[in-house]
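Reference record:
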Amino acid sequence: YYSNVIIDIPLISTYGHDPFNVGIFFNLKNENISEFGKGMRLSFYNHFHRYGNGNVTITSCLDEEELYPINGEYNLETELKLTGSKIQDNKGNYYEYINSEQSYPSHIRDAVNNIDLYLSTSSEKIQRISNNEEDEINSSIVDFVYVNNLVEQVIYRRKISSNQYEDIYKVRLEYNSSFYLTRLRYYRIGTNEETLVKEFTISYQSTFIIVEDVTLNKGIKVVISNNVITSYITKHSSGYLENPKATTTFEYVEGTTSLID
């Protein structure tokens, strides 16, 4: 058995018409290094692979793989099906791909909310997410700035004229020597200054992971033994010392998991 650790980290939330959210996920089981560090993947990651027989597999940001046969049958778990180069549902929502293998969809259609998102990549690394193909005034754009193949900044911009953009918000990311993401700083961008509004830190050890909201002085420690979560502890007056009021433990017996609060 294996009790996994999934950490959902928000990055950017756009506003105005056709808003969208951008985040990343840490997956303890994922040993790969992406553009956001070891074990991290962007929430828009959906790896598309078409086999020689035409069937397609999609691997999500959480490493969940689903098969879509070329005959157009619905996947019973996801209620999606393959139509040409699109993975779609029965409401008109779809992910569209251009190549036989790519890590991100090129076009995402949210038919329910009438939103279209367009993703640009280079060497399978995300470069930009935008709505309305960037050609409309007030369209939202999220750009990814790289240093040494890792994303160092995520910048939210809005188009204010035919050739001018206004920077709204920025996230700066830091990594350690083992390529783990260790710090995120969130800035609101004004006319002549950037104001720090939020900060997260992540600490990794073989027996625990600690995620802290530095701004609010809150955090959680996930304790791991033999690749299994044994407990988690919310930060309290004594830090992360064992405390019955702040500790939740897990027990594993014959393939079942018990949570003890």
Summary: The CA atoms of residues 252 and 258 lie 6 Å apart.
